[in-house]
Amino acid sequence: MGAIHQFRTEVQIPEYSWRLDHSHQIMMIGSCFSENIGQILIQNKFPVDLNPFGILFNPTSIAQSLELLIEKKVFTEEDLFYHAGIWNSFAHHSRFSSVDKDIALDTINRQVQTSSENLRNASSLIITFGTAWVYEYQKTGQIVSNCHKLPANEFKRYRLSIPEIMDQWINVLHRLWEINPELRILFTVSPIRHWKDGPNENQLSKSTLLLAVDHLVKEFGPEKAAYFPSYEIMMDDLRDYRFYADDMLHPSSLAISYIWDKFCMGFVAENTMQLMKKINKIVSGCNHRPMNPGSSEHLGHVRKLYNEIALLEKDYPALNFEIEKKKLETDNSDF
């Protein structure tokens, strides 16, 4: 019998020196890929503070956001600008924008206050770089997190260099460890392609990010910082357009699920994986639409779910099933 042929280049996940569980606060910050994995962690009841400034793409904007949390920045009217009937912040994604200035400020400051505390108590900070390209607002020289549809000629666009990223991030990491000495940093580079830059510029951008992260991880060592190869998994392991969404740029739901499985292999302990199975069973049961609502069989099913939730909350106090309990109560008025 001949040798078995290999038809794909599977990326091997390294042995990491720490694991995630439900007792530890996690913060995730960065590009759309942080949103994808972060939402799955939240669905599995991990305590995650996900993108407290909204989706961010470049290393400078991410670093600036962390510095604002370290400083517990209080935003004022001077930090906002008014454009096309909306108040915006250059430090934030448009989900923080509002037609009402006071609402925008209140939303921003509440999130900064909450996330500043979460950062100080977090066990892990997961950072996803998306692009090395930045937009500098020419009136102030500020590198912005979002252009908020202002005219392109108001910005200077350029690609960060590896030394620029290194200098800024070495400083930011030291500041993070000053306020949270036990914090562990996980870097990833988003596999989502920025096609508007062109294929060559996209590759140069991703290469810049990969080299900068490699230098940072080697600078501080595996006990402090590590790298998860989400980019390599997408580019080499899932090297087929069937693993992309319709735009041919973003990973498909199947690809995200596969990368999530790889992430779990590296960062989630076996006992936590078993707990996640119990959590998913309860969440699915709570979301299930009954054939005969109000029947004795259905009410028995509801009571069983309540008992299972109570047992898990007793054994794992960090778990939060308030959404599921409220749904059971709302959908079952006879309960």
Strand and helix map with partners:
Elements: E1 25-30, H1 32-43, E2 48-50, H2 59-71, E3 80-83, E4 86-89, H3 101-121, E5 122-129, E6 133-137, E7 142-143, E8 155-159, H4 162-179, E9 184-189, H5 199-220, E10 225-227, H6 230-237, H7 253-267, H8 270-287, H9 296-315, H10 322-331
Parallel strand pairs: 1-2, 1-5, 5-9, 9-10
Antiparallel strand pairs: 3-4, 6-7, 6-8
Overview features:
335 residues; alpha/beta; Rossmann fold; three-stranded antiparallel sheet; 10 strands; globular
Describe this protein's structure:
The protein has helices at 32-43, 59-71, 101-121, 162-179, 199-220, 230-237, 253-267, 270-287, 296-315, 322-331; strands at 25-30, 48-50, 80-83, 86-89, 122-129, 133-137, 142-143, 155-159, 184-189, 225-227. It has 335 residues and is α/β, with parallel strands linked by helices. It folds into 2 domains: 25-268, SGNH hydrolase (Rossmann fold); 269-335. The strands form 3 sheets. The protein has a 5-stranded parallel sheet, with helices on both faces. The radius of gyration is 22 Å and the shape is globular. The protein starts with 24 loop residues before the first strand and ends with a helix.
